[in-house]
Structures are given as C-alpha cells and as structure tokens.
Amino acid sequence: MGLSHRGLQLLSNIATNDKHGENSPYFDGWKAYDTNPFHPTNNPEGVIQMGLAENQLCPDLIEEWIRNNPEASICTAEGVNWFRYIANFQDYHGLPEFRNAVANYMSKTRGGKVKFDPDRILMSGGATGANELIMFCLANPGEAFLVPSPFYPAFIRDLCWRPRVQLVPVECHSSNNFMITREALEDAYKKAKEDNINIKGLILTNPSNPLGSTVDRETLRSIVSFINEKNIHLVCDEIYAATVFRAPCFVSVSEVIQDMEHCNLNLIHIVYSLSKDMGLPGFRVGIIYSYNDEVVSCGRKMSSFGLVSSQTQYFLAALLSDDKFVDKYLGESARRLEQRHSHFTKGLEKVNITCLPSNAGLFCWMNLRGLLKEQTFEGEMMLWRVIINEVKLNVSPGSSFNCSEPGWFRVCFANMDDQTVDIALKRIRAFVGKETGSKPVEHKRWKSNLRLSFSSRRFEENVMSPHMMSPHSPMPRSPLVKAT
Ligand SMILES: Cc1ncc(COP(=O)(O)O)c(C=O)c1O
User: Fold this and answer.
1) Does the CB atom of residue 286 touch ligand 1 within 6 A?
2) Catalytic residue among 26, 33, 105, 152
C-alpha cells in the first residue's frame, strides 16, 4: 500500500521528491515485461527484456575459475582458514590485495598504457554509489554538471536525487554520429551561465551508454582542454571500458592526460565498476580513481557508506590478480560481444534497420525514424508502445536518454542467449515487414527446447523497486530456499 498524503508529510524532502526516476513512463516497459515475461517454454509469447544492459555472455569462464580455485572463497573448506580475518575486516581503505588487483585490472582494461596507483582507489556500491559519492565531493546542492546527451537515464537519480546536483545537457546530434563538439560544450556552458547556474563539472560516459561508441582521442583532448579552461571537474564514467569489441580501441582519459602538457590533474576523476566488464552487477563493486588528493582523502571517509564487502574484496583480489585468467577473460568477452553484435545488427539490416556505428557496450542505438507516424517525441512514444504491447520487446526509447531527436531506441543484446536473440529478431522483422508492406517473416511457433534466457535481476538503470517483481518472472530458485 502506498503512503497517504499525510504520511508523506512526515517524511523528508529527499524521501518524497521524484528524482529517483521511478515515475517515468519508461517504466511502463518494465511493467509490461514484469507482468508477462518471455519464457521459451512456459511463456513463448511473452515480452523479451531488451532494456537491461547486462553482460551475460561469459559467466562460464568465471564459474570455471571458481571451480579451479576453491581457496579464493572464505566459505569453502579450502578457504575457511581466512574466514575470521576477512569477516572481521572493516577498514575503509579496503584490503591492500584488492586495491592492487583492481589497479592492475584497470590498467589491463586500458590496454596496459597507463598505471594506476592503488592508494588512489576508493570503493563504493557499484558505479551508482561511485557517481553519487563523487558528486558529494565536488558539488554543492544546486550546482550543476554538464552531461552530453543522449545520456544514461539514472544519472538523474545518482547525481540529482540525494546530492541535489543539477544536470545541464550538452546536445549532440545524429548528423555527426552524436560526437561531442567544442561548440556544443561552449553553448551549454554559456546558456547555463546566462541562467545563473554554477557549472562545477562535466560528466562523460566513455564508452557511451546508450550509443555504444567510444570517444576518440582528439575529442577527449578537446574536452580536457575545455574543462581546464573553465576550471571545472571532469568525471569520466568508464564502466564499459572492457566492452570494446572492435576498432577503434578504447582511449581512457587517464591515457590522454598523461600525454597533455597543460592539465590540472586535480580536476580529473574516473568512475569504474565491475558490473559491465566482468558481468558482476550483483557484487556491487564500484571504484573512484581520483587524481585529486583532497578528493581521495574525503572520498575515502565517505566511502564508509557504501563499502564493498570484505568477502567480495577477498574473492576478487584472487580473481583479478590471476593475469592469465584476466587476459583470457578479456579476449574471450570481446570476441563474444563482437559476435553477438554482428549477428544482431546483420539481422536488423535484413529489414533495412540501421544502428549507429558502434564498437563497444552491451547495446545498439537503433534508428527507427522511418517507422514514426510523426517525427516528434509523441510519435516516438506511440511507436514504443506498439513495440512493447504488440511486438512484445522491451526496448528503451531515446527520450528516456534525453536524446534531442525522436526515433532512436536502445536495444540491449548481451543479456540473453542466442535463441532468444533470434526470436527477438524474428519479431522485429515480422513487425517491420508488416509496417512497410514488405513480406512479413513467417511467424512460427517458437521451439520448445530453449534455455532460460535472462537473469533474475529485474531492476537496473532507472531504479526498479522490488515491488515490481512479478510472480510470473523466470527467476531461478535459490538453492538456499527449501522447496515447498
Ligand atoms: C553509464 C553507467 N554508469 C553507471 C551505471 C551503474 O552501474 P553499477 O551497476 O555498477 O552501479 C550504469 C549501469 O547501467 C551505467 O550504464
């Protein structure tokens, strides 16, 4: 039961404002999925979840490592000797082995071109916690961060809800593949100044969510020059660093500043996480790497509110310092992502659907402008509702990413198995065929031997609450719960 109006009055402004983002119409898609989730045998006509930026392509590699390294867990016969020490560990600096391993791993995922100092690594609950924490360190309530659009929708929750920072979009356009130009940065900055908004920094997601593309070296240099000239911070969310599956390779801000003569390092901060690159969103491992000593010192104290559990740190210290495993994992993960991406985009091309050229991420930025009844955001919403209710795919409309042009949709492709991707492609092709008058693809009954295709996680990006979990959802039963 919801809170009554009088009940709400008893709570704080933060508790009762809507910056958590859950009231957006975007959630209709999640609800549609949640009340009617696709299952290959139990519910083959259900909604396929393509709104979840999860990397489920390589868990087998981690499982194999776990089997071969039982001592890496304190909850096995082989590892239990460490149980007391690790269970009691609570230093907010984190286990030294963990910080060393993360620094080493971050260097590997940036092509070995930069070294990271383990003493500058701060922990938080996922990149979600990291982005919030860095805002608490850098901006006062009411101050603002520039953010190139389209952008990750939950930045509104992470930056605006509790830190009460404002977001000022830097509009990017399809005419140049949504590249961030100096002109667009200057325009947004100038406009904010005219509106008396104090800009404290710029937050950049590289590789981009939702575009699935990387920011090139020249653009990064120009962004670093821009923030230096304005004397504002640059927060680079590099959560998708190791999802780059084809050229051009990923260039981290850490590499760019290494080669620049004039850069105030106190302005540079990197946010990272193992949620996407390693497919471990449930572990809640978020990292802040700041070049600013004050931020490191204050952020470390603040990290008390969202530490990574020592059990997880201990396990990851062992996993990530196994160089042989990490090299194999990164290579294989990129190969599987490339394969999935090519398969998916080629499937779309068969009905002339194009996507923005991309080389990274767990999604495509699909161009459906040709299917809009009118070139407006209302037209986009109309099409989106048809896709959810009739085509039965939960994709995400561009407007939820603050895209400045209607008709773009983000489609996630790495959170399901091969068979489910093919079913989704068939549905899209049948729908587009019907819409454009070309011969629709025959609608066959789906094979009944498909594997269970998605995880139990039902909330991501714009924050889902547990109350949205449906009894119909295909959640695997935990071995800890006794069968009734
Ligand atoms: C750009 C970006 N930043 C942060 C996050 C949050 O990640 P985490 O699960 O590590 O909190 C996401 C998740 O989708 C993301 O896409």
Assistant:
1) yes
2) 152
Residue that is last in its domain, among 322, 344, 362: 322
For 120-136, the pLDDT digits (tens) are: 999 999 999 999 999 99
Distance 154 CA to ligand 1 centre (A): 8
Q: What percent of the chain has pLDDT over 70?
A: 87
Which of the following is catalytic: 48, 239, 288, 428? Answer: 239
* Any atom of ligand 1 within 6 Å of the Cβ of 126: yes
Binding site membership of 275 for ligand 1 (Cβ less than 6 Å): yes
Whether 484 is in a domain gets the answer no
Residues 238 and 120 in one domain: yes
Same domain, 284 and 406: no
CA of 137 to the centre of ligand 1 (A): 19
Mean pLDDT by 10 residues, the chain (484 residues): 64 85 70 90 95 95 98 95 92 93 96 95 97 98 98 94 96 97 98 97 98 98 98 98 96 95 95 97 97 97 94 97 97 98 95 95 97 96 94 95 96 96 95 70 36 34 40 49 44
| 291 has catalytic annotation | no
* Residue range 310-366, pLDDT digits in tens: 999 999 999 999 999 999 999 999 999 999 999 999 999 998 999 999 999 999 999
As a three-state string, the secondary structure of the chain is CCCCHHHHHCCCHHHHCCCCCCCCCCHHHHHHHHHCECECCCECCCEEECCCCCCCCCHHHHHHHHHHCHHHCCCCCCCHHHHHHHHCCCCCCCCHHHHHHHHHHHHHCCCCCCCCCHHHEEEEEHHHHHHHHHHHHHCCCCCEEEEEECCCCCHHHHHHHCCCCEEEEEECCHHHCCCCCHHHHHHHHHHHHHCCCCEEEEEEECCCCCCCCCCCHHHHHHHHHHHHHHCCEEEEECCCHHHCCCCCCCCCHHHHHHHCCCCCHHHEEEEEECCCCCCCHHHCEEEEEECCHHHHHHHHHHHHHHCCCHHHHHHHHHHHCCHHHHHHHHHHHHHHHHHHHHHHHHHHHCCCCEECCCCCCCEEEEECHHHCCCCCHHHHHHHHHHHHHHHCEECEEHHHHCCCCCCEEEEECCCCCHHHHHHHHHHHHHHHHHHHCCCCCCCCCCCCCCCCCCCCCCCCCCCCCHHHCCCCCCCCCCCCCCCC
Verify whether ligand 1 is closer than 6 Å to residue 205 (CB atom): yes
Q: Whose CA is nearest to atom 14 of ligand 1?
A: 461
Q: What CATH number corresponds to the domain at position 137? A: 3.40.640.10
CA of 373 to the centre of ligand 1 (A): 33
State if residue 237 touches ligand 1 by the CB under 6 angstroms criterion.
Answer: yes
User: Does the C-beta of 210 come closer than 6 Å to ligand 1?
Assistant: no
Domain that holds residue 265: 71-322
Residue 479, in any domain of the structure? no
- The answer to whether residue 14 is catalytic is no
Q: How far is the CA of 128 from the centre of ligand 1 (A)?
A: 6
Task: Clarify whether residues 231 and 83 are in a common domain.
Answer: yes
